[in-house]
Design brief:
The structure is a homotetramer. The first copy, chain A, is of the alpha+beta class. In chain A, strands 1, 2, 3, 4, 5, 6, 7, 8 and 9 form a 9-stranded antiparallel sheet that branches. Chain A has 6 helices and 9 strands. Chain A starts with 14 loop residues before the first strand and ends in an 11-residue tail after the last strand. The first copy, chain A, has a single domain, classed as Roll (Urate Oxidase), CATH 3.10.270. In chain A, helix 1 runs antiparallel to helix 2. In chain A, 52% of the residues are buried. The interface between A and D is large, with 54 and 54 residues.
């Protein structure tokens, strides 16, 4: 049977990424509390394609994914990317897995337990070196400092999504990034709350008013201190309760670069 | 050229709806303030298919849509559905158009003007009679009465989406339904607010605490009073600021049916 | 601490549904091949609210969900709904769970194995009786009979989504509905295919050309024959390869109603 | 009334982007055929925030958007970004507008006319210089060369989305990028087709089989030749008809960089 993909291509154009996208697959992940967690990944897998070849062999990505589905972890993703490079004769392999991740939380006063969902991702690229980024999206409460300062009582507050991505030295738990986001908010949020918890969180948020700008700076202070983190981005999208659009803030820092604090970046 | 669609079908199964879905088309609508408004419709168009025919002629829906795109209004939609019935030799024609609709609003204190988007829809079915439903989705603020009552200060609040659908006698403006939803909320919301407006809305919401249940009941009281409305549904989805899920309430009423208030429905 | 929710409501309006929506939670399901399958549910839970009460107690839904998360099956969902009725003093409890469900499939020629995702749902309502609907969305290939008949060679084909919902007597596997949808298509589809499989499926689809209308009628014939099924709806949305919109067909049948085939419905 | 936003910030962290996101607003655009086109923009607007200030003034973005809504064009966007820089005392202003854009197309044989939707965007950043990117997403048909080569008859085909982004010298029409994408496909697609058109497109696609890799290379050849284009990215996502996931290819080229074609990039 003819292998059209292997035909020589005369157009002299190399392609940065060829592969599969929108693939949904069950995956098994490391979980700090319970060892492993089952989840469902939304997957992209790519290689580079040299100018000489017409096309890649898409089915091989799926074969590799199927083999590795029980071990989507930092060390195994390197093995997975190596396997892709070899099987597809590529110089560069890339994979992104987006997945929901659940953490059991305990309500602040009643101590009732429930699971919170965080949308996370692993993104790895292997050419001669491995580059790896992990990301979390953390829903929190933000309460507006301006609204609090100018109003007779109360302040508008809302659900915000704090997103953090990091490059790191050896290893970092998703839970560590989630904690940094939650500590940086006006208040963290929970799936199950009883009335004493609701009172506690309402008051806590009012005592810690924070703009989108404050949320990302608070997170940046914590990300700066974390020894394992080499590089990060952090954003907050506030789903404003007094508008139908969001307020947004974003910042990026590479700790590997020596900075002169007297110069603006 | 063979007309496969017209082949006789032997399976003896009539089909309730055949047609097109996910069609995006520019439309022109009636606007209470400015006469007409340009928008972009997301369109579904269907007919019934008798048991004898293999398939319908999908291209005819597009021809009709193209002809009617400048007059997506209640009276013209009846003409459109009649045309579909005739062109497709159907007993029943159906059309749903979802579209964003913008209304200029004036901030409560500063009086600055801006446009608010409301996601609306028209849904018409014509067989021997015409059935027609219009719907609006209105973003508002809700402030939790429980949180206010139990907390030392403040109360959690959030963006909520109040959805209203109605059947009516002669004519009703989208703007009337939008006003009913906004009046039923803790506070309506705006695209552009200056600080005195923000203070006003923060305080207003605190003075009008409302559960999802309150929002739909408040809207129901107003929908009950509106003489033109024969039937309605109303729901509120509160995008909770202390949870990552929503609180929700929904109710339906047919005013054409005589009700005995002593009996539960 | 005051219980605002329990306040007497004077507006004299009962509410059809109050509860939670947009809740994401890990669930455990029955799997025909392997006993159980872990998945992630997107959850709605509601009760009715009598005219006398101001609001419901939203946290109780989460408590019940947390307790039942390891047994989201037909028999357990009845228990879950009973528990909700009792805990929330309601006449009527409702739950809808949408979840991805994976089935291992074997490619037709190469016999390589991979997992296919199907988006499914369970929808239960318990008042004095239990009403229960299960649904599947099945991606398949459809190939256009008209395009085949009028063209010198080839025919346009595309991914279609066949959706089936059923009420049943005692029990039915999701896998049975998935098989009905796949058998009704021009060809079923797979996550992993080698070249001999691709040849097989290309030719199979060309030999079984089917309109959206054919897909739902073919499924209806099979659903009619299935003894366990009492009621069904089936639709097909064809993501047309020659248009940017979809072709769509839908039909509904209640086998419990005696029909006179000489009368149009 | 206190200006909390202007408070001095002691955390010594500058922020890359602060502003608004998820804002929907009607916009007016340049249209090659008819002069102007009304559309609805999905808008993001940002400035940088120096380390000394606590927060930005979000309402000013909306004021600028409201003033400029009737002229979202390349020259006016520079004015808009200048106005933002001035009003918000920023070093850098950024705006992204995503919008549907409709072009009238004429079917290849019947010559019937209909409107096709293309999702487009303008993305501008102004600091000391102006950087500007325009993008289009173009739905087309792709037909698989492998499936054609190995099958007795037919070939699987599907809707694909070709995305092109460019930086340019003076001016370029969205329509030029749309044409490049459509010419690079197996066949372009239409909203309204009669049977002779369907035959024409079915045969055309079979005569021009193209992988995702071919689509981006064909587009790259045309983008290379276009004198006005300085830099581009092009991708194709094929919504596979034999899989539930997509095949994908992406490449990027900066023509401003001198390249040695003997070296791999």
């Amino acid at each position: 049977m003819e292998d059209i993909q292997c035909q020589k291509d005369e157009r002299n154009i190399s392609i940065d990424r060829v592969g599969v996208k929108g693939l949904s697959y069950p995956v098994s992940l490391l979980d700090r509390s319970s060892g492993t967690q089952n989840s469902i990944g939304q997957i992209e897998m790519y290689v580079d394609l040299p100018r000489d070849f017409r096309a890649t062999h898409m089915s091989r990505f799926i074969e590799v994914m199927h083999d590795y589905r029980d071990e989507i972890t930092f060390p195994h993703m390197k093995g997975l990317l190596k396997t892709i490079k070899r099987k597809l004769a590529a110089e560069r392999a890339e994979m992104k897995v987006d997945f929901p991740y659940f953490v059991e939380k305990c309500a602040p006063v009643s101590k009732v337990r429930s699971l919170m969902r965080y949308d996370c991702s692993f993104h790895g690229i292997l050419d001669t070196v491995m580059d790896f980024i992990i990301s979390v999206k953390v829903p929190v409460t933000s309460l507006c400092p301006c609204s609090k300062a100018i109003s007779k009582y109360s302040a508008h507050n809302q659900r915000s999504i704090i997103s953090i991505s990091v490059r790191f030295k050896k290893f970092i738990w998703l839970e560590e990034l989630i904690e940094i986001a939650e500590q940086s908010s006006s208040s963290d949020i929970f799936t199950l709350l009883k009335r004493p918890d609701e009172k506690f969180l309402t008051e806590k948020a009012y005592e810690r008013p924070r703009f989108a700008e404050d949320l990302v700076r608070e997170a940046a202070l914590r990300l700066d201190k974390h020894k394992e983190i080499l590089w990060y981005t952090v954003s907050s999208e506030n789903i404003e309760s007094i508008h139908a659009h969001s307020a947004y803030a974003f910042l990026k820092k590479d700790k590997r670069v020596i900075k002169n604090p007297n110069l603006s970046e």
